[in-house]
Amino acid sequence: MVCTNVEIAFALLLVGALVSCCMRSWRLAGWVATAFIGIATLLAWNDGLNVLLSGSTIQGPIAALPRFGSQLAVTLDPLSAGFVMLITGVSLMATVYSIGYMEHYPRESPRRFYALLQLFIAGMVGVVSVSDWLFFIVFWEVMTLASYFLVTFERSDPQAVRAGFKYFIMTHVATAGLLITAIVLWGNTGSFAFEAHKSGLSFMGFPLRSLLLALYLLAFTTKAGIFPMGDWLPDAHPTAPSGVSAILSGVMIKLGAYGVLRVFWGMLPHIGRQGEIMTWGTIIVFLGTLSAFVGGLTAMKENDSKRLLAFSSISQSGYIFLALGIGIAFSASAKLSSLALLGLLGAGFHILNDGIYKSLLFMNAGSILYSTGTRDLNKVGGLSSVMPLAAAAGLVGVASLSGLPPTNGFASKWLIYQSSISGGLRFAPFVIVAVVAFFISLSTLAYSLKYYNAAFLGKPAAEGRRPTNIPATMTFAQCVLALACIVIGLAPVWAIKPIVSVFGASLPETFSVGAASSLAAIPAYGAVPAVWSPVALFAVFLICFAIAEGIRGSGKAKTRAVPSWYGGEEHTDDEVRYRAHGFYSPFNQAFAKVYPHLPIPRLPSIKRLRSALDFDSWLYGPLVRWGGGLVDRISRSHAGIPQLYMVWQVVGMIVVLVLLFVLIR
Amino acid sequence: MSASTIIVNGLIALLLAPLFDGVVRKVKAIIHSRKGPPITQVYIDILKLLGKEDLRCTASAIFRFAPAVALAAFLVVALLTPMGMPCAGLPGDMVTWIYFLTLGAAAIIVLAAASGNPFAEAGAAREIMMLLSVEPIVVAALITAAIKSGSMQLTDMTAWNISHGPAVSMVTAGIAFFLALQAALGKLPFDIAEAESEIVDGPLIELSGPKLATMKLALLIRQLVYCFLLVQIFIPWPVFSLWPLSVLAALVKVLILFVLAAVIEAVSPRLRIDQAISYTGRVLFVALAALVLAVIGV
Fold it and tell me: Global pTM?
């Protein structure tokens, strides 16, 4: 039997998890895990690139369960291939980062971390590379459980345990929906295969089909952190160790988008009527817009570095769903197929970009935590002198998150705006989506600069412990991702071409790629004319920068170092430090109640469950007490007084006589 | 992409931006019954500052390079802005226009934070809030134009307005843009981010000499591109077939806008940031109304 590379990669991750179980030293365990994940990444990228460049599908059956109509097989179509590459690439960087970062936890055992981490990655690879709902759910659960244990890695922190519990409950309620759809469709078709469920859905009546689609949407939006359902995210992501937060935000929540693509793009357009597809697309667009809006505005208020980024993940997930919804809404119409492609392309590209810069930023926030021991942005400052390379990488990440050219964040936002405005010309409500997207993009700039300014710039903070430098592995991982941000930003065509092939099309259907990799939308296919040449614009920007520097240096002015000027008064650095909580307070007051945050449950239900399982407390204990009391009462009758015994004898005799009398009659 | 547009736009931005500010100062002086500085005073200031001592309060590389980044970003915006030339200067559309403008603003904000001065950081936070309240209006106006013209390229919007005449939605969008212009220019009553008498020039407080000159020029170019965008997309008339004439007409229209802005500036007190936000919030409704009008096709 010939194994596909993805199978070998998957097996390697499982073996790596087992090997990690025998490790005692953090450092050794980290490097061994990196080696396993590194080789798995190489293998997965080999397959992934093959599939993406050829547009073919790799099949690799492993085992079949004919009784259940289910088959475990690797099915690597271009969509899966793209996700496998993103998962393994980002996870590898996060693992490299963790080698240094996990020295943070000398008292914990590395077994608990690296074994679960590799299991987590294996689960994600499994989710995207099968085409069978049974195994999809199995791997989905492996991923969810492994990430649950990683979120609650700091067992001693009650906050982490509660956040993990919330995550566990919310995602499992959603997974139950997935399970129900799978079972209902299995009952109809006798198979768990994606293809069979596609036809199963098409033969179904409209009400039941809508119900099942709603359950799918619930499951996937919960995982993606979309606003009302994604409430677990701002609690769970900050408490996980930073390397894991990077994978959670960078990759795992994108699997929600993967699921939506599989169902609403892969299955729905072939069965539904145009109006039905349009409705589902519009629902997804508005969920996404709401999520982008709420997440973006809430992040502006946060003073906890990792919580701020978690809200930003909600917001960016919203961007992805917004573009995805536009793509889905127009996917049924043959005339507007290019417009649909534009939306899907924007979503796919944003998944890639958000995966890169969000994991970079979580690693960056983790560096702050490692260095200063706090996530509170009020208590840090001036870290760029302590860790200059991480500060530079963070600046790239922040620029990318807020979509500033020439980074990759701009590239995907350009596509998203274009698709939302073009979509607005066809279906008016999408216009408002474009306005909200622009506004939230500015609020993204506001919160990301708040994060960066408070942590890396300004005066060093006096409170807390003295910041330490961070290990080289942490810096390395961040620099690699920052470089990826810039390379993709300057040459988006390299990323767009394979993503277009993911959606089963080729580039010229939407864009004409001109000189210097300039992109121009072709109006004939439903998109509005727009043009953007990243390389030419960046070159012009560099020339302008040279001119500006020339102007600045033309006077040959002397330079002199001076202290900061505080209006003529003398202050210590700490007295005049502008703290994070001071940012944007008028604006935050205007939008104070935008995120109705559910409190983390205090686990009353767990207590009840525990007491229900504790037979001592409600069965054995009372039984023993009752028996003991009975015996006590009997023993009390033996008081040692002869008269009492005689009374008992007389009473007994009367009872016996009465009985005999009754029986004989 | 046309070289002549790049050259003309670049020269207008670099050489004429200080002139408009000189006119503004003269107009304000006349309203105040002062004699006022000569119109060339801003050139003289910038040239003088270029030779002055460069005081640096921090060794941060961001502090060193941010003024030039801001100037470069606004220059790129100027090259993307229609200034009366018949074709676009650079391969870019309204999204690139907005984001390069944002890049320049981000450079100013990061510079302020890098200086570590609390006045600067307070100014930076206000700068972002002003950006957050003004940009949506500009964006809504531009999207209105994009929907009417069916294109995201700024030159196409101008061309559509010239050929299809004034439309109700475009005029409404233009009015919204004009109402937000004073805030976009950062002039009284909206000079909240700089607020000389309150937070001592805000983000610019620690800048001196050549850096201050660079930043001043950058801010003047930003004012100029907002004005050009307004007049060229929403009021593109009169139209001439000869491009020097249309550039001249655009310059005259921008000059009128600046004079109006100067008059408003001379007679208004400064608003607090929350008052400014509630004002721009109301203007945003006008812009959204324009958008709705455009969608229903008037």
Answer: 0.86
